[in-house]
Amino acid sequence: MKKLTLLALALAFVSGTARAGHDAPGGDPSSLKIKVYAVYASVSAQCTNPIQIFQNDVGAFQDFLGNPTLGGGDLDDGTYNCIIIKMSSIIKHTPLATDTSCVAGTEYTGGVCNANDSATDLDGDPILCSGDGSNAGSVDSTVYMYMTTDGGASQGDKAFVRPVTPGDGNGIHLGSPLVVSSTSRAKFVVNANGKVYAGGGECGIEAPLFDFVNL
Questions:
Q1: Distance between CA 81 and CA 101 in Å, rounded?
Q2: How many CB atoms lie within 10 A of CB 205?
Q3: How far is CA 125 from CA 71, 89, 120, 144, in A?
Q4: What is the pTM of this model?
Q5: Contact 34, 192 (CB under 8 A)
Q6: What is the domain range of residue 138?
């Protein structure tokens, strides 16, 4: 069993009117704040029998561009193909550069799970999010983001739906599994470059690329 500390370089989700898969080039964020309540790991790409790494019922917004420590806990040596983050559906981001409705240095707050979005808890039961999809109309909910190495996982639109069968399109794709061993260390890397998106009078941020890198 190994003591594990999860670190993040940058983290972003779909926010406000921005949606994963938008074709126009976007900008980079200078800050990205997310409230994390717990992190789990599963050896299965379908996220079954998750092991809780740590829990913080209160949570606090942390700037993921500042390399925050999310928390630590014990995990047996092994290969974990699913990482689950229990989090607030409200995130905050700041654009690095100005682009129409995105103003550099201005912090924008928006929801990543709204009334038209799907989400499930660890048991697969529905989570009912609310809000109209705009930044101003966002409503805070507690959701679970399922990062999975399943090649059929979504690029962000089903990030909060637990995978059930291989290739069902649920969860969000994780480039590499978390490998825990007595001789290695892993860093959680999330690439949010080019994900800030201006449109419809809003400033949002699209889904990033997730990966683990062995150090």
A1: 38
A2: 29
A3: 26, 17, 5, 11
A4: 0.86
A5: no
A6: 2-214
